[in-house]
Write a structure and sequence with these properties.
Elements (H helix, E strand, L loop, with lengths): L2 E8 L2 H32 L5 H14 L9 H24 L16 E4 L6 E3 L9 E5 L3 E6 L7 E10 L2 E9 L12 E6 L3 E5 L4 E3 L3 H4 L1 H12 L6 H35 L2 E5 L3 H4 L14 H14 L1 H15 L2 E5 L24 E3 L6 E3 H22 L1
Parallel strand pairs: 8-11, 11-12
Antiparallel strand pairs: 1-5, 1-7, 2-6, 3-4, 4-5, 6-7, 8-9, 9-10, 13-14
């Protein structure tokens, strides 16, 4: 299977300058290639392809030896492929009748990743294996950059990417043939109901805590945002204020990611089969503001609910859970969430009146009482096992 390994880089001050210059030059190459495509099509009606621009890259590097010529030829070709993929996706959206979204020029804060398509071609992982305590990655034009390697890399390294997040730099290794770390069978199954009060509730009655990292950092984020609003655009102080705000948001993102990993790992270690709701999170968090002619209702309440859902990080959690389930040799099933919170897990009676409050469930038919999320999780588990049985029978 394919897996990614992400590590924090520890560049020196000089290497940080070189990494920033490398990123800026790749962004300039991307924008120049986009402008080339637009100009040629506008004036001559001819579509420029990746092969044409890749062939021109050799001359660009020769004419700018101290600029574009400093960096890896393979990484620059990967940047041109990135633009080609953007155009491919654009034309696919046009053919499908969706909002196209023409490829845009990349501003300074909209281009943060460089990729080397092959380990050893312009980059090399573990470039100083003789070093007794540290790991390094060598990047052409930058040098040997120290890596904070907190776990072993498994499989065969296929691509190496460097990503900037605020003031931090990360290296991302995409590896093939990563061996699965199968866990021993437990003989247990569970359904999970995602929520806001608790991140997830299992059919066994366990509640996984929702840390609410964004809410906990709300005061500091608001203060940083107010400070940013007072700074003059283009000033050095504004750039520092932007960096401080980005650092706070980055911390919240890392906290949420860490919590999702721990919660998913606990579920995978405890259960052989895990069933969850197949949620459409993007639809659930749409704004209720509406239009001027047809304004929405309960806009403030919907806005607060959207913020709570996004703070819980359901999408991140489910993505991580699916990866860990695959790696551990477990089974993950997604079911339609319709009426799972209104249906009695004991008798099957479905009615809106069964859900008394957000946390209480009382069946109006048989009198069954339970925590609403636990009742929903049991319905989710039953639906998932029924789907699995039907698939096995077919």
């Amino acid at each position: 299977m394919r897996r990614s390994f992400r590590f924090l880089l520890r560049p020196t001050a000089k290497q940080t300058v070189a990494l920033t210059a490398c990123l800026d030059d790749h962004r300039a190459l991307y924008d120049a290639a986009l402008e080339h495509r637009r100009t040629v099509y506008t004036k001559a009606g001819v579509s420029i392809r990746y092969g044409d621009q890749s062939a021109d890259l050799k001359h660009i590097r020769a004419d700018d030896a101290d600029g574009q010529g400093r960096w890896s030829f393979s990484s620059q070709k990967a940047t041109l492929r990135r633009l080609d993929k953007a155009f491919t996706a654009f034309f696919a959206r046009v053919r499908a009748g969706r909002t196209p979204g023409f490829p845009r020029f990349k501003g300074e804060n909209r281009f943060d990743t460089i990729q080397w398509p092959k380990n050893g071609d312009g980059c090399r992982w573990d470039s100083q294996p003789e070093h007794p305590t540290a790991t390094f990655v060598r990047l052409q034009g930058v040098g040997h950059v120290r890596v904070h390697q907190h776990r072993a890399v498994r499989g065969t390294i296929k691509t190496i990417s460097v990503k900037r997040e605020g003031i931090r730099w990360y290296v991302i290794l995409s590896c093939d043939d990563v061996p699965a770390a199968s866990l021993p069978a437990t003989g247990t199954t569970a359904g999970i109901d995602l929520g806001v009060a608790s991140l997830a509730t299992t059919s066994d009655g366990e509640h996984l805590v929702n840390p609410r990292h964004l809410t906990a950092s709300a005061d500091r984020l608001a203060a940083a945002q107010r400070e940013l609003a007072l700074k003059k655009r283009g000033s050095k102080r504004r750039r520092k204020a932007v960096a401080r705000l980005a650092a706070l948001h980055g911390k919240v993102r890392r906290q949420r990611l860490d919590g999702a990993h721990k919660a998913a790992l606990a579920l995978v270690a405890a259960y052989d089969v895990i069933v969850h709701e197949d949620l459409r999170i993007a639809n659930m968090t749409r704004s209720a503001s509406g239009t001027l002619q047809a304004p929405g209702t309960n806009v403030a309440q919907k806005s607060g609910l959207n913020r709570s859902i996004l703070d819980a990080g359901w999408g991140v959690f489910l993505t991580i859970l699916s990866h860990k389930v695959e790696s551990a040799g477990r089974e993950l099933i997604a079911v339609n969430p319709a009426n799972t919170s209104r249906t009695c897990a004991r008798c099957g009676h479905c009615a809106k009146e069964n859900r008394i409050t957000q946390a209480e469930f009382f069946c109006t038919a048989c009198g069954h009482a339970a925590h609403a999320d636990v009742n929903a999780a049991r319905n989710i588990l039953r639906a998932g096992l029924a789907l699995r049985d039907a698939a096995q029978a077919a």
